[in-house]
Amino acid sequence: MNALYNFATGPLAWAAFAIFIGGSIYRIWSMIQLAKQKEAAFISYMSWPYALRSIFRWFIPFGTLGWKENPGITVATFLFHICLLVLVIFTPGHEVMWDYAFGISYPTLPEVVADGLTLVAIGAACFFVHRRLTNAQVRYVTTKADWIALGIAAAPFLTGFLASQQFGDGQIMTLLHVLSGEAMLVAIPFTRLSHALFQPFARAYIGSEFGAVRHVQDW
Amino acid sequence: MSILDRKIDDPELKRATETLTPDRIEQVINSVLQGETGARLKAYSEICMRCGMCAPACHYCVSHDMDPSYSPVGKVEQTMGLMLRKNGRLSPAEVYGMAQIAYTECNLCRRCVHYCPIGVDTGYIISTVRRICHKLGVTPLYIQDTAHSHSATMNQMWVKEDEWTDSLQWQEDEARDEFPGLRIPLDVEGADIFYSVIAPEPKFRTQLIYQAAAILHHVGADWTMPSTPGWDNSDMCMFTGDFEMMGRLKRSHFEAAQKLKVKRIVMGECGHAFRSVYDVGNRWLGWKNHPVPIVHSVEFFWELFHEGKIRLAKKFEEPVTIHDPCNIIRGRGLMDKLREVTHALCTNVIEMSPTREHNFCCAAGGGVINCGPPFKGVRLEGNRIKADQLRNTGVKVVVAPCHNCHGGLEDIIHHYQLGIHTKFLGDLIYECMEKPEPE
Ligand code: SF4
Ligand code: SF4
């Protein structure tokens, strides 16, 4: 068990990070090459100010027409992503790993707050599941890839919460948490989770088109 | 519901799909996907989260009680999604359905962009689907007829060269009764303004040329029209996916202006033509900026009012509402100028809701109205929301500076018995401006 845990947090973790970083760089690089090769006429309209304007605007909950008219998914989306980012960095257990591996230490969230945020993220994920099953427009277009992406993104929260509650055999849960976190890292460049990489580019492009060419807002 | 449950008989879609084989379909689809698409399509198809947030954006979806097969992402799934899933190996029946969706159930209005957190441009995806349909030879009959007209005559309506100049001379003749000394100057080198119109103007709405001539005469403009091909700024080939022909049309339009060495092109009140010259055709030709500056008439009228060139004898008293045409609002941000001009002309303007860049499309644009009578019901049922929007203003006059919007709105007004009249800005200016005393 210990050996397995050491392997998961050691070599496997390095491998996961390597695939995540290398894979992400490769995907972004090859996408930019493709755009340059095939869509130069469109890149030529890219504009930093309008790209950033669009990205920031869409960072504001209820700041756009899409967010306003879809309140449920808006709240769930923002909560899910905020919890994800905060927990990845500020969970005490994660900080320990950084400290252990690189000697980097920083203030962390109290356990109970981290647990609370984890529950919020799980709640948001449950909302996504519920919506996929019950909302006619979403159900119509849902494919296996969507369920896989959702499963991979939700698993670290679920296992993390159970581990922190010492559910069942604490060590197994922790191991599962580590593995699911690594699965998520590996999945980001290669599944629908790649929206984390490409959404800023897609926004920057459409923001530039709308701002610089069409002189209108894209929200 | 799926597209196959609402298949509409179109003679050309039927004829063309009957000649297709799965091998041919696969080869054409993949040649376009590999040869012509790139990072945008790849990214969109991978990172669309299937969140359905775009569903309430689309008038077709809203007007069909949120039927998911009409949502933007639903339509993408049944067309581009299907092709990607099956690696291009579609049956002829599936191609028929795909063409029906792409040509008749999406106006390329891009309202859905305001709803998508990722920034997916459904209009681009559906345009690409149309491009594939064009290469398969599968386009609805009526719009294909206009595309053929473009390639045979360089205008949309089979207007012959002598008919074009005849129409202009006829309008000049008529207008001289009301405005002595008025000219419709042809081929004047070095004029300030090259005035271009869409071919339905000389064909069906000649009074609009009369009005434009009256307004240009009233403000003392130095203007001209060409007697040769290139006078038509419209472009159905952009909408059928015949981009090669689109390029020829735009080149001919700009070259006509360049030959006359004019300072700029002013276009009549049309939206799709503006999209074509401003945003699409020019890029296909590899021009980042336009070889001749080009303005839409909303902007031109706005300039005239700002410079105090239009002298009004009266204002339009009846309450009006404003319809924002997608192609010049979401396509060029003219919503403020449109309002300033309308307010300069009308005493009582009542806004629709939603409005400006969030306005619902007329459901005629994107070539949908040009797909002709078989698909009229698609537009009427697909835009109940527009009828509600219009009805809720309580007014009896709607200002819409776009030909497509006029056609679409008139059909909706008639179908839902709203008793509303549509007006161009040119109609209002002509009606309200000072005119010479009748002799
Ligand atoms: S009609 Fe407009 S809102 Fe509907 S899918 Fe097409 S571009 Fe989007
Ligand atoms: S809103 Fe955007 S990401 Fe969501 S389903 Fe529609 S196109 Fe896809």
From TrEMBL, chain A:
InterPro entries: NarG-like_sf (IPR036197). Keywords: Membrane, Transmembrane, Transmembrane helix. The chain crosses the membrane at residues 12-29, 72-91, 112-133, 145-163. This is Nitrate reductase subunit gamma. It comes from Desulfovibrio psychrotolerans.
From TrEMBL, chain B:
InterPro entries: 4Fe4S_Fe-S-bd, 4Fe4S_Fe_S_CS, Cys_rich_dom, Helical_ferredxn. PANTHER family: FUMARATE REDUCTASE IRON-SULFUR SUBUNIT, HETERODISULFIDE REDUCTASE. Keywords: 4Fe-4S, Electron transport, Iron, Iron-sulfur, Metal-binding, Transport. NCBIfam families: ferredox_TmcB (NF045724). This is Ferredoxin. It holds the Pfam family Fer4_8. The keyword Lyase does not apply. Residues 39-69, 97-120 form the 4Fe-4S ferredoxin-type domain. Signal peptide: none annotated. The keyword Transport applies. One of its GO terms (molecular function) is 4 iron, 4 sulfur cluster binding.
